[in-house]
Amino acid sequence: MSSEQLQADQVPTKAGTAYKVRNMAFFYGTKKALDNINVDLPAKSVTAIIGPSGCGKSTFIKALNRIAEAETKVRIDGQIELFGQNIYDPKVNITRLRRRVGMVFQRPNPFPMTIYDNITYGPRVFGFKGNYDEIVETSLRKAALWNEVKDKVKTSALGLSGGQQQRLCIARSLAVNPDVLLMDEPCSALDPIATLRIEELIETLRDQFTIIIVTHNMQQAGRVSQNTLFFNTDESRIGQLVENGPTKEIFFSPKDKRTEDYISGRFG
Ligand SMILES: Nc1ncnc2c1ncn2[C@@H]1O[C@H](COP(=O)(O)OP(=O)(O)OP(=O)(O)O)[C@@H](O)[C@H]1O
């Protein structure tokens, strides 16, 4: 990749730190999937997570909103703070945490209901008392979908294209006004044009939200992110964070030979 292809502004964020991860280890049952993760993730900025298959990228982001424990039996050692609060503190309200930390998955997963009801679902769950029409319009505008759907918000979300469905899922996350948006390969099921729309959307959202995106696509990491984390597995097949820093440095002057080999396509 040439430096011209790095579209995103590479200046590190001034908005402080969103997540502080310290000595984090992650277990699925007895299997250790991640070990000794120490990293700060900047607020109001896009962080890309890259690395070969099975190195723990999805596991890492699923630890950031505690969704992993909803899926299966897991254990997390160490500490993860979000804006100074330990999210694994027993006093933490998990529903409220997941409201603050939205998530978008590989495959768009709109609910089988109208576009309108998809957007208002979260606010209704949280007992929002204000103007629902306004939330629908604002969320769809933020997700760059309003112009395409404004005349059919009362029709089924399942009638939208894959790319539109993914933007709807982003709009649905935004409707509850989160601090963080986690994205797990959000473009992997999309064609290049729909992918470009999502990348443009990420750029418009990055000043307002902390965005953390797992991607297998190096060009995409280079285009959308300001910071990059490179994960790999060690000789025991346990995921580790090899290197992190400004995307430009990770791509053009990595400090670790494994990062360089991965970026240059020599493995993974
Ligand atoms: N529910 C689970 N139960 C047991 N092991 C799991 C579970 N989910 C993931 N793993 C294991 O944890 C390790 C990390 O998986 P993870 O999906 O986080 O990697 P990844 O880097 O996101 O991979 P990919 O790029 O292929 O999506 C792998 O060895 C995987 O087999």
Automatic annotation (TrEMBL):
- GO molecular function terms listed in the Swiss-Prot or TrEMBL record: ATP binding; oxidoreductase activity
Residue ranges of domain ABC transporter in the record: 19-263
Instruction: Give the gene that encodes this protein.
Output: pstB
Question: One Pfam annotation, family name?
Answer: ABC_tran
Keyword list (alphabetical) reads: ATP-binding, Cell inner membrane, Cell membrane, Membrane, Nucleotide-binding, Oxidoreductase, Phosphate transport, Translocase, Transport
What is this protein's name? Phosphate ABC transporter ATP-binding protein
Could you tell me which NCBIfam families the record lists for this protein?
3a0107s01c2
* This protein's record includes keyword Transport: yes
Q: What Gene3D superfamilies does the database record attribute to this sequence?
A: P-loop containing nucleotide triphosphate hydrolases
